[in-house]
């Protein structure tokens, strides 16, 4: 099996899993992967992640030109912007999961990191989560905003929209996304109760032991 065929299968498999886990709904959200030749596989526009077929997956150039498959997600441009700034990234997950989107709708004192470091696994897999200003769906100006944050962050949260998570592989990106959603869930469960997030020394120790 070729690299491209295997990655197409991986996207369909993980799309189905995310849909079954209720992290994806309707035709919302998109997945992408980088091929060794510098092209990209992206889930198609208006497709449901739970019912993808390998031949449907869009193959696009680094400039976003369709090379094969169905037309790509209208949000593929911000995937490409993130890949450009993160050369080690091999996959990106963008979903509209309930708790993470709820965090994106809140007012935050600082947009630099909108979820507290409640667990070591959030720090390891997600890192700091900055909030990107709101742009309407399909607005190409979002690419520049995502690219700016992607220089220093592997994950980010689009205001009133949802998270973007990158990693070296699709498996890792999915696991990081799930960790983000679980931290968002903890954030709401804890509510106004006094919490004890990890301090700067603990975070520095994790970052040294598990570099991103």
Automatic annotation (TrEMBL):
Family to which the UniProt record says this protein belongs: Belongs to the aldolase class II family. AraD/FucA subfamily.
EC number from the UniProt entry: 4.1.1.104
Keyword match Acetylation: no
Species annotation: Arboricoccus pini
Top class in the EC scheme: lyase
Gene Ontology annotations of biological process type: pentose catabolic process
A single GO molecular function term of this UniProt record: aldehyde-lyase activity
Protein name from the UniProt record: 3-oxo-tetronate 4-phosphate decarboxylase
